[in-house]
């Protein structure tokens, strides 16, 4: 397997990754390009957009200027805060994925209270979520399809219902991790990205009839019609196109100003301020990614920290080796809830293993055939190195500003 000479991503990273002639990946090159951008200019573009939609809201007699999808995470908290700085009155919208952590609920409540904004929260019934999860984990190895589909559908339905034409999203996750888009594309939310990446090519009607799923179970995941979208003039922008996105700095800002809480620890990565509102995100969901493609959340987190100059590649690799293979404790919670045995789940995953990285040994056990640990001294690694920027917080060697007592136990609903 080829690995990026600068970060930790393998050549089979999802959704798509490319390496240049120096062996540096498209995600790292995108990050380089982001450093060259005139962010002051971009900020003026953002301001213009906010002014335009404030005026539009007034013209339509709306209470809200835009819709922002929020969870209990740092990204959406920061987005909501930022929109307020531009005089916006956003309607906050939550699709409750029902796999909540206490710390996530605490942060959601804190956000609504401290920013003094309205929140509309939709909770799908648990039985439908269970059936969807059981079907999709068996079909594509995704335990929380309902969460991605819900987040990519409910805010849009609300925007249509409230005749509010602007939705503000956070960072374009795919673009930022593996460099799917060019920074100058100014990519916006599309129905196509929603379907192909967030929903893995499945529309809700494709699930009907499986695991006893009826039309009514899939109701919340239906996207508005083209006519409705056009009538409202809907547009979804990503804040990361207008501001230099630095998740760690944003988390620190929220901790300092709003008492934002992090998780105390996580099973599958050292980063405790990101993806903390749902126990699926870094546990089972991420473990399934590892079993399919041979890399997990620690690879994502370390790669990002390396690009920001917060870690050396060697330190990043150490984190990947420590965490990427770990079986998460919430797997037991998930299996009990969804009604599958571990053997059943592993049987399903077997058919999805990427054989570029997984091979069966003589005893018919899956073995990983390569890892970033074998590529520490690759020929391009020295040349691709970035200087450290002195901001070394956020990983185990510098834990204190991030530590909270363990209160991130799971709750359903
Ligand atoms: Zn890279």
Write a brief structural summary:
Helix content is 45%, strand content 8%. The chain is mainly α and 413 residues long.
List keywords for this structure.
three-stranded parallel β-sheet, two-stranded antiparallel sheet, 9 strands, mainly alpha, binds zinc ion, 413 residues
Description:
Helix 3 packs parallel to helix 4, helix 3 (74-85) crosses helix 12 (247-258) and helix 15 runs antiparallel to helix 16 (313-323). This protein has a domain at 39-241: 3-Layer(aba) Sandwich (Rossmann fold). The strands form four sheets. It has a three-stranded parallel beta sheet, with helices on both faces. It has a two-stranded antiparallel sheet with strand order 3-9. Strands 5-6 form a two-stranded parallel ribbon. Mean pLDDT is 90; it is low at 396-408. Helices cover 45% and strands 8% of the residues. With 413 residues, the chain is mainly alpha-helical. It contains 19 helices and nine strands. Zinc ion binds at residues 4, 6-7, 9, 24-25, 27-28, 303.
């Amino acid at each position: 397997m080829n690995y990026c000479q600068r970060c930790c991503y393998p050549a089979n990273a999802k959704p798509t990754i490319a390496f240049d002639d120096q062996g540096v990946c498209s995600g790292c090159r995108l990050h380089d390009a982001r450093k060259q951008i005139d962010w002051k200019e971009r900020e003026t573009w953002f301001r213009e957009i906010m002014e335009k939609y404030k005026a539009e809201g007034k013209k339509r007699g709306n209470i809200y200027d835009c819709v922002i999808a929020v969870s209990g995470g740092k990204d959406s908290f920061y987005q909501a805060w930022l929109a307020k700085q531009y005089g916006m009155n956003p309607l906050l919208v939550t699709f409750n994925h029902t796999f909540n952590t206490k710390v996530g609920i605490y942060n959601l409540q804190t956000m609504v209270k401290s920013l003094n904004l309205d929140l509309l929260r939709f909770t799908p019934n648990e039985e439908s979520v269970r059936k969807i999860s059981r079907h999709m984990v068996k079909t594509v190895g995704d335990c929380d399809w309902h969460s991605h589909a819900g987040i990519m559908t409910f805010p849009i339905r609300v925007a249509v219902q409230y005749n509010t034409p602007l939705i503000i999203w956070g960072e374009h996750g795919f673009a930022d991790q593996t460099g799917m888009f060019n920074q100058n594309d100014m990519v916006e939310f599309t129905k196509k990205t929603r379907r192909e990446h967030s929903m893995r090519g499945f529309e809700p009607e494709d699930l009907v009839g499986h695991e006893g799923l009826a039309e009514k179970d899939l109701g919340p995941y239906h996207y508005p019609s083209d006519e409705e979208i056009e009538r409202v003039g809907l547009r979804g922008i990503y804040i990361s196109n207008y501001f230099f996105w630095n998740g760690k700095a944003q988390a620190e800002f929220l901790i300092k100003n709003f008492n934002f809480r992090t998780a105390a620890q996580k099973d599958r990565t050292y980063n405790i301020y990101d993806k903390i509102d749902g126990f699926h995100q870094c546990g089972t969901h991420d473990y399934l990614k590892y079993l399919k493609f041979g890399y997990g959340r620690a690879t994502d987190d370390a790669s990002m920290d390396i690009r920001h100059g917060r870690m050396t590649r060697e330190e990043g690799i150490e984190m990947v080796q420590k965490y990427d293979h770990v079986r998460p404790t919430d797997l037991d919670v998930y299996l009990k809830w969804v009604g599958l045995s571990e053997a059943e789940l592993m049987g399903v995953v077997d058919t999805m293993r990427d054989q570029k990285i997984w091979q069966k040994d003589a005893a018919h056990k899956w073995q990983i055939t390569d890892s970033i640990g074998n590529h520490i001294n690759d020929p391009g690694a020295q040349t691709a190195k970035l200087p450290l920027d002195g901001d070394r917080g956020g990983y185990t060697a510098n834990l204190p500003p991030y530590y909270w007592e363990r209160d991130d136990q799971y709750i359903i609903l």
